Amino acid sequence: MSANLSRYTALGLGLIMFGGPFAAFSYLILLNVPFTALGLACVVLGATLMLTPSSPVPVHTIRAMVEGSCVNIEALLEEFDARWRAVYLPPRDGRVYAYVPLTRNPGALAAWAAMDAPLRVVTEVEGEPGLLVFPPGSEVVRLSMLSPDAGIEEALNHVLVDFVEAAESVKAVREGGRMVVDIKTSRVETEFPRFRMVLGSLCTSIVGCVLSTVLGVPLLVQDEQVDGRSIRVIFLEVPRAG
């Protein structure tokens, strides 16, 4: 059975494989009408599940929307000549935001203060100008209906592998305040250089949104290594100042 078989398809196929022979055996051998009806019901239910899409919106459409949403962010970052790495902030009103400093790398105090900054594009945190942008991965995390109790690696695979199919697999290791994430066979990309400089590659940006949601702390991309379609990214949890 294909590893890419959806849950609905796998369950539907299982019901059909069970229901068909069971109905035939009940009708021809047992001569039992209720058991025959049960077998036929399994076949009908299985066929219905196989015809039910695992996502109401095709996956390739979701990926195209995610990639396309980078255009406006790239234009905004270019307009303000943003050069410093963004800080991924825990969700506010159910959505992850990224704080982009415009003058220097933010310290721990500024990163945590950004969580309470007014929700507008151009903002000021600890007397320093910055941007609050809405990364593409934020809406992806919200639409994926990620469980608040999900573990780190479970959450990453649920969003990147199962929901968006943006990667083949994701592995994560947490070492104190460092999070090392290995992404295998990335399927989404952005060629916008400013976006990559500030927010990381598109897969990395989605990972940042997932991690900030699960961990509930600001996160900064320390390092990103891209080897073909494989990505290793290291996130740093920003410690609370004081």
Concise structural overview:
By secondary structure, the chain is of the alpha+beta class.
How would you describe the overall organization of this protein?
- It is a single chain.
- By secondary structure, the chain is an alpha+beta fold.
- It folds into two domains: 7-51; 59-237, no CATH class.
- It is 45% helix and 22% strand.
- The protein is built from nine helices and eight strands.
- Strands 3-4-2-1-7-8-6-5 form an eight-stranded antiparallel β-sheet.
- The longest helix has 24 residues, at 7-30.
- The radius of gyration is 23 Å and the shape is elongated.
- The model has no long low-confidence stretch (mean pLDDT 84).
Task: Set out the fold topology.
Layout: H1 7-30, H2 33-51, H3 59-68, H4 70-79, E1 87-92, E2 95-101, H5 108-113, E3 122-125, E4 128-133, H6 136-143, H7 152-163, E5 169-175, E6 178-184, H8 193-199, H9 202-215, E7 219-227, E8 230-237
Antiparallel strand pairs: 1-2, 1-7, 2-4, 3-4, 5-6, 6-8, 7-8
Helix pairs in contact: 1-2, 4-8, 6-9, 7-9
